[in-house]
């Protein structure tokens, strides 16, 4: 079979030919419509597997489309790298690798219309669940999970133990799906991690910044690091039961002086912005230099907050709480007053002021047994430059 039809027409013409077939046109009529001979169209049809599977209703964009498969075929024909092809179609390179492996023709050639037909056939539902239908397979999988094997280890064992029995194989995803569907029992089939629900992942897909126009902590002024000058703060939220309430926490790096932010209306970005603006207005302007926060969505309106408070706001790297270690330590002290798993909305603004005063009157070894209030007053009695 030649690699392409003899007349080698443009891909757009072939695409339209197969679209017409899926719309119900006969081969000869579709060929006339796109301007090729009936025999040319027949060669295309045979090369695509001599069948046409109707496209389903619109599906999730995470699936490859017919145009994506055409782009993959064109890239392979041009001897392009798989990662380059993946970038062109906007998918991860793992997705493109799997597509080529699964849907190439038996001879190894990737033909986009054949591949699309195969993908549509494999996607058809309902399908019998492999582990549900096979009692022997189900028993082996349950036994291995009971012995604390992971689904990946179990899948590899099945491949080794039953090399000539395809029916006794299951990939890790099949095992996970059966487990979460309750086909392997509640206790005997429990994962060694203890999870009973799937945890969402986005493997291979770059996650965009959740907060726009962030300035990262590495760009802070150097004076922040040596703690010689006050006015540099760290902030965060402590979250209540079922993530239904929160309290904002601010601590000044040099003096360890604490301010608590009352959030009676919730802790989404607009509420946090408004509360920070209103409740930091009493801090002397010369003590509002920088504020370091983590990358929580509650600070999505950080540019408004910075403009209206005078703070220059910096963000930690993801999963790097040590970059605002003073605040982390302070949050640990605050949990004595606001235990985890409790409803924080029951605390009034006056309650928060009382707790902050207690902490600010507690002597700290790092301050030479001074209290944060004493340390702050010591700086306020001398000129502070911004």
From TrEMBL:
<dbReference type="InterPro" id="IPR051917">
    <property type="entry name" value="Transposase-Integrase"/>
</dbReference>
<dbReference type="GO" id="GO:0005829">
    <property type="term" value="C:cytosol"/>
</dbReference>
<keyword id="KW-0238">DNA-binding</keyword>
<protein>
    <submittedName>
        <fullName>IS30 family transposase</fullName>
    </submittedName>
</protein>
<dbReference type="GO" id="GO:0006313">
    <property type="term" value="P:DNA transposition"/>
</dbReference>
<dbReference type="GO" id="GO:0003677">
    <property type="term" value="F:DNA binding"/>
</dbReference>
<dbReference type="Pfam" id="PF13936">
    <property type="entry name" value="HTH_38"/>
</dbReference>
<dbReference type="GO" id="GO:0015074">
    <property type="term" value="P:DNA integration"/>
</dbReference>
<dbReference type="InterPro" id="IPR001584">
    <property type="entry name" value="Integrase_cat-core"/>
</dbReference>
<dbReference type="InterPro" id="IPR036397">
    <property type="entry name" value="RNaseH_sf"/>
</dbReference>
<keyword id="KW-0233">DNA recombination</keyword>
<dbReference type="InterPro" id="IPR053392">
    <property type="entry name" value="Transposase_IS30-like"/>
</dbReference>
<dbReference type="InterPro" id="IPR012337">
    <property type="entry name" value="RNaseH-like_sf"/>
</dbReference>
<comment type="similarity">
    <text>Belongs to the transposase IS30 family.</text>
</comment>
<comment type="function">
    <text>Required for the transposition of the insertion element.</text>
</comment>
<dbReference type="Pfam" id="PF00665">
    <property type="entry name" value="rve"/>
</dbReference>
<feature type="domain" description="Integrase catalytic">
    <location>
        <begin position="226"/>
        <end position="380"/>
    </location>
</feature>
<keyword id="KW-0815">Transposition</keyword>
<dbReference type="InterPro" id="IPR001598">
    <property type="entry name" value="Transposase_IS30_CS"/>
</dbReference>
<dbReference type="GO" id="GO:0004803">
    <property type="term" value="F:transposase activity"/>
</dbReference>
<dbReference type="InterPro" id="IPR025246">
    <property type="entry name" value="IS30-like_HTH"/>
</dbReference>
């Amino acid at each position: 079979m030649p690699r392409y039809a003899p007349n080698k027409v443009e891909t757009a013409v072939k695409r339209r030919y197969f679209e017409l077939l899926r719309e119900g046109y006969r081969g000869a009529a579709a060929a006339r419509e796109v301007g090729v001979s009936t025999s040319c169209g027949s060669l295309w049809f045979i090369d695509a597997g001599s069948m046409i599977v109707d496209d389903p209703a619109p599906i999730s964009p995470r699936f490859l489309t017919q145009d994506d498969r055409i782009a993959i075929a064109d890239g392979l024909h041009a001897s392009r790298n798989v990662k380059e092809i993946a970038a062109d179609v906007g998918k991860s390179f793992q997705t493109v690798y799997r597509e080529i492996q699964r849907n190439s023709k038996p001879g190894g050639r990737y033909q986009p219309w054949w591949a699309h037909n195969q993908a549509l056939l494999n996607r058809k539902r309902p399908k019998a669940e492999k582990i549900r239908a096979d009692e022997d397979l189900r028993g082996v999988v349950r036994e291995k999970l009971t012995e604390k094997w992971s689904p990946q280890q179990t899948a590899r064992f099945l491949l080794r133990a039953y090399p000539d029995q395809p029916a006794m194989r299951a990939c890790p995803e099949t095992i996970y799906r059966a487990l979460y569907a309750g086909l392997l029992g509640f206790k005997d089939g429990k994962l060694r991690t203890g999870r009973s629900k799937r945890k969402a992942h986005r493997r291979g897909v770059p996650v965009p910044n959740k907060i726009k126009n962030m300035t990262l902590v590495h760009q802070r002024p150097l004076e922040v690091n040596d703690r010689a000058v006050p006015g540099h703060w760290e902030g965060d939220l402590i979250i209540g039961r079922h993530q239904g309430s929160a309290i904002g926490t601010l601590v000044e790096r040099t003096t360890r002086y604490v301010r608590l932010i009352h959030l009676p209306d919730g802790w989404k970005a607009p509420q946090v912005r408004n509360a920070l603006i209103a409740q930091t207005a009493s801090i002397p302007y010369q003590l509002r230099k920088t504020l370091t926060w983590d990358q929580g969505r509650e600070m999505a309106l950080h540019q408004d907050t910075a403009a209206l408070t005078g703070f220059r706001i910096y963000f930690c790297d993801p999963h790097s709480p040590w970059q605002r270690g003073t605040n982390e330590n302070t949050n640990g002290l605050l949990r004595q007053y606001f235990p985890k798993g409790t409803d924080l909305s029951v605390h009034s603004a006056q309650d928060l002021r009382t707790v902050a005063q207690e902490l600010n009157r507690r002597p700290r070894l790092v301050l030479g047994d001074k209290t944060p209030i004493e340390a702050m007053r010591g700086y306020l009695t001398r000129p502070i430059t911004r």
